[in-house]
């Protein structure tokens, strides 16, 4: 086994780190069950999209009131787009339009989006995140250079409006624009949209659904956000993490999700700080929790959605760096189980990125980087679940 | 076409339909099994799968590359930045039901592991042969394109590295022999080294190994299985192989008298089938290298070409072509090399392909495909018997209940 660990890195420190990780994995593998929501991947959902189309990085997902599932992706380039252009090299492949809508059965029902033909709107340089409001309209953010706005479309792709001035840089206190909005969610009762703002800004921004006016915003712990914070905690690969070092008073970002619960709280993903912070809807800080806190680089807290029960007992937290969906008790903020593993097969991930759920409690996750899929995990109720549900293949396999 | 003897009516029907070309009335049909093989234990993942073969006992062996992982966002349990993932070892063996039997192999294990391993074969003694390729930039993981965190390496590209040898192992991974000079220079005239040996076939009666040589050389080489000694070699049309400059392939151009990348070799019905990848063609030879025939596959294909690997159906009536540029398995009539149908499509889902590169067929006609690059899977296609298919290109082949 030592040899295997040395295959890639050779360095003794890194090999030792890897061995520790393996030891932990072996412990985890001891069969241990917990009371938790259980899931089963549907390997044949969605259905093939046809037309020679292919996805790029799938960078947002949302589910409407009829359980239609929408994704936004970035298309493909280079040797994955060999069928594009005037002189295609081969029969495969062509980028699908960026927004795809699937019905409950997984059939592709609509495909639209991309730069405006008549310059009526500015498509993001790098689309990122989506939400669907109570009117069934689709909101799309972006994390490219100059992406300081959010676009709104009907669900069949008619342009409705632009929220925030376009082409602006970072200003975490701006009342007129955003900076690289990562995700959009809604509080329908208050007629407010929550923007995870974002890759550029370091804040949550609350927006009037109808007018797009910014009503309020806040940073970590409810502090006033600043654009270029310094962080007390320096983190090193393989060095243990301690909580007292990391009470970072600003979001490290990207602020990658901002999800209102049905009991008047807002759950915010501070991705590279590996934490979820909870607020009241006015921005008053309530509590926080860290997940896989030693995680470096992209971070561990990417997106979340709530369980389907009225109490929203659990939230499901996407960890793209560690290739797991973490099932977390919302009251205790403790992880009770996980779903998914690394890899390229059904129920396996190469960088999961976004998550949403439908009325039946099924969850949908997308992969960015080289994963580039939309996965469906069918909700199987609460029961004796493995501590780690892994790829969650159908029973009997 | 032994099968057609069974019924006079069937013969006449198929014969008529065959006149139109692309006869699809009776072809092998397949369904992907998305739940094969079983998941590796967290946090292990496969690298690019650069070869697949089926052992006589029905087990499936693959060889994977370990040079393509993105150090920034993929092997986080190796770099200490997270808990997933860690590459598996290079060679994995699965049972027919998809359980992992063993894994072994890789760099720094006391033998000269190829920089870019490619191709895996099982010789008549049950030993494993592994070839190599041409490695582009050292340390240049190709992952992360199109996403953040995967910036390409900066600076001028380093010179490529050539694998000029072949490794032979026992079934369980004990190193038995290194065939050819390690770290040599590709040369299609050499009797002592290879140039990115891409694939293998074996003639048990003659105790000969056939090498698709390869990524840098432009020939078929025949070796003694036991000693690894050079016996004979040939190039396109059975002529002497050449390393001279080649014109880029053009569908309307004069067919090249030279092989481009020789990416496969198979012995079927006592004939030698050779993949000439960028030239979009299969050439067929007698075992002594006498040219017999050739056929093109999707000849409009440019770039890396259409013929990455071939394998025959158990009855040898059909030839399956791994077409990694069009991302589909092309089904040909084996004797005439004419197109019948295709399945598979580009993408990351079951029966979708990303850099389909090789395939193998088991005794009951199931196909196992291997995806290199960012595909990184071995997929199983269950043979569902002979039947008609309606589509020239079937695309994804989900099980009937999931379509």
- Derived from helix and strand composition plus strand pairing, the structural class of chain A reads mainly beta
Work out the number of β strands of chain B: 30
Record the strand order, biggest sheet of chain A. 1-28-27-26
Largest chain interface and its two residue counts? A-B, 73 and 71 residues
In total, how many domains does the architecture of chain A comprise? Answer: 2
- Please describe the biggest sheet of chain A, giving its number of strands, its sense, and whether it closes into a barrel: 4 strands, antiparallel
The second-level CATH architecture of chain B is: 6 Propeller
Gap from first CA to last CA of chain A: 27 Å
Averaged pLDDT of chain B: 91
> What proportion strand of chain A?
35-45%
Question: What assembly state would you assign to the polypeptide chains in this entry?
Answer: heterodimer
Cα shape of chain B: globular
Q: What is the terminal-to-terminal distance of chain B?
A: 31 Å
Helix content of chain B: under 10%
CATH superfamily of chain B: TolB, C-terminal domain
- The number of domains of chain B is 1
Question: How many alpha or pi helices of chain B?
Answer: 2
Give Rg of chain A in angstroms: 21 Å
Q: Count up the helices of chain A.
A: 2
CATH class of the largest domain in chain A: Mainly Beta
How much helix, percentage-wise, in residues of chain A?
under 10%
Detailed description of the structure:
The complex is a heterodimer of chains A (397) and B (403). By secondary structure, chain A is mainly beta. Chain A folds into 2 domains: 1-30, no CATH class; 34-386, TolB, C-terminal domain (Neuraminidase), CATH 2.120.10. Chain A is built from 2 helices and 28 strands. Residues 1-27 of chain A have low confidence and may be disordered. Chain B is 4% helix and 36% strand. Chain B has helices spanning 8-19, 76-79, and strands at residues 27-33, 44-45, 49-54, 60-64, 86-87, 91-94, 100-104, 118-122, 128-131, 134-135, 161-162, 166-169, 175-179, 197-203, 208-213, 219-224, 230-234, 262-268, 271-276, 281-285, 291-296, 309-312, 318-323, 328-333, 339-343, 345-346, 352-353, 356-361, 367-371, 378-387. In chain B, strand 3 (49-54) and strand 4 (60-64) form a beta hairpin. At the A-B interface, helix 1, helix 2 and strand 24 of A face strand 2, helix 2, strand 5 and strand 26 of B.
């Amino acid at each position: 086994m030592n040899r295997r660990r040395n295959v890639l890195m050779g360095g003794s420190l890194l090999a030792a780190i890897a061995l520790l990780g393996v030891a932990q994995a072996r412990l985890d593998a001891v069969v241990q069950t917990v009371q938790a929501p259980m899931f089963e991947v549907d390997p044949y959902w969605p259905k093939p999209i046809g037309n020679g189309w292919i996805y790029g990085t799938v960078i947002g997902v949302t589910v409407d009131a009829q359980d239609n599932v929408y994704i936004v992706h970035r298309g493909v380039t280079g040797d994955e787009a060999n069928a594009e252009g005037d002189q295609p090299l081969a029969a495969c492949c062509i980028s699908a339009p960026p927004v795809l809508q699937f019905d409950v059965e997984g059939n592709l029902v609509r495909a639209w989006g991309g730069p405006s033909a008549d310059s009526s709107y500015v498509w993001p340089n790098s689309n990122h995140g989506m939400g669907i409001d109570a009117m069934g309209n689709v909101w799309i953010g972006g994390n490219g250079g100059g992406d300081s706005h959010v676009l709104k479309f009907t669900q069949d792709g008619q342009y409705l409006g632009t929220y925030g001035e376009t082409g602006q840089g970072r200003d975490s206190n701006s009342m007129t624009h955003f900076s690289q909005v990562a995700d959009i969610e809604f509080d329908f009762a208050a007629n407010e949209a929550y923007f995870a703002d974002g890759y550029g800004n370091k804040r949550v921004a609350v927006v009037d659904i109808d007018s797009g006016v910014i009503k309020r915003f806040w940073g970590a712990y409810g502090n006033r956000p600043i654009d270029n914070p310094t962080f007390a905690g320096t983190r090193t690969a393989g060095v243990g993490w301690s909580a007292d070092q990391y009470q970072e008073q600003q979001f490290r970002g990207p602020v990658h999700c901002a999800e209102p619960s049905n009991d008047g709280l807002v759950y915010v993903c501070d991705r590279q700080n590996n934490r979820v912070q909870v607020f009241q809807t006015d921005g008053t800080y309530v509590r926080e929790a860290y997940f896989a806190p030693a995680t470096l680089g992209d971070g561990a807290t990417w997106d979340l959605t709530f369980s389907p029960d009225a109490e929203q007992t659990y939230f499901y937290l996407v960890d793209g760096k560690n290739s797991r969906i973490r099932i977390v008790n919302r009251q205790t903020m403790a992880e009770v189980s996980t779903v998914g593993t690394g890899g390229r097969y059904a129920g396996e991930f190469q960088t999961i990125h976004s998550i949403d759920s439908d009325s039946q409690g099924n969850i949908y996750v997308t992969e960015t980087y080289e994963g580039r899929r939309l996965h469906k995990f069918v909700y199987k109720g609460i029961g004796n679940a493995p501590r780690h549900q892994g790829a969650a293949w159908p029973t009997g396999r | 076409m032994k099968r057609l003897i069974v019924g006079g009516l069937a013969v006449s029907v198929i014969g008529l339909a065959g006149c139109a070309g692309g006869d699809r009335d009776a072809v092998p049909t397949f369904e992907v099994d998305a739940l094969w093989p079983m998941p590796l234990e967290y946090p292990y993942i496969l690298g690019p799968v650069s070869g697949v073969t089926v052992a006589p006992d029905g087990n499936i062996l693959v060889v994977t590359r370990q040079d393509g992982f993105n150090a920034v966002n993929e092997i986080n349990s190796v770099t200490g930045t997270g808990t997933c993932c860690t590459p598996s070892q290079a060679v994995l063996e699965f049972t027919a039901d998809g359980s992992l039997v063993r894994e072994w192999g890789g760099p720094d294990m006391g033998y000269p592991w190829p920089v870019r391993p490619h191709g895996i074969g099982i010789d008549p003694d049950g030993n494993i042969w592994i070839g190599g390729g041409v490695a582009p930039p050292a340390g240049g993981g190709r992952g992360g394109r199109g996403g953040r965190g995967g910036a390409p390496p900066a600076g001028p590209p380093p010179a490529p590295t050539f694998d000029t040898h072949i490794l032979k192992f026992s079934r369980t991974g004990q190193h038995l022999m290194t065939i050819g000079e390690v770290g040599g220079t590709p040369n299609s005239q050499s009797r002592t080294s290879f140039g990115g040996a891409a694939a293998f076939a074996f003639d048990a009666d003659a105790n000969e190994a056939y090498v698709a040589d390869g990524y840098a050389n432009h020939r078929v080489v025949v070796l003694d299985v036991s000693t690894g000694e050079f016996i004979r070699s040939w190039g396109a049309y059975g002529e002497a192989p050449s390393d001279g400059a080649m014109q880029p392939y053009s569908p309307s151009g004069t067919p090249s008298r030279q092989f481009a990348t020789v990416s496969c070799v198979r012995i079927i019905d006592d004939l030698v089938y050779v993949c000439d990848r960028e030239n979009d063609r299969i050439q067929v030879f007698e075992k002594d290298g006498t040219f017999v025939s050739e056929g093109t596959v999707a000849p409009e294909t440019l770039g890396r070409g259409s013929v990455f690997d071939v394998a025959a159906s158990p009855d040898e009536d059909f030839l399956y072509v791994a077409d990694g540029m069009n991302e589909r398995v092309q089904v040909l009539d084996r004797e005439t090399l004419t197109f019948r149908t295709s399945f598979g499509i580009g993408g990351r889902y079951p029966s979708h392909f990303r850099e389909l590169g090789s395939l193998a067929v088991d005794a009951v006609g199931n196909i196992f495909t291997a995806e290199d690059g960012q595909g990184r899977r071995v997929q199983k296609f269950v043979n569902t018997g002979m039947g008609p298919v309606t589509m020239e290109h079937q695309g994804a082949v989900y099980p009937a209940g999931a379509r």
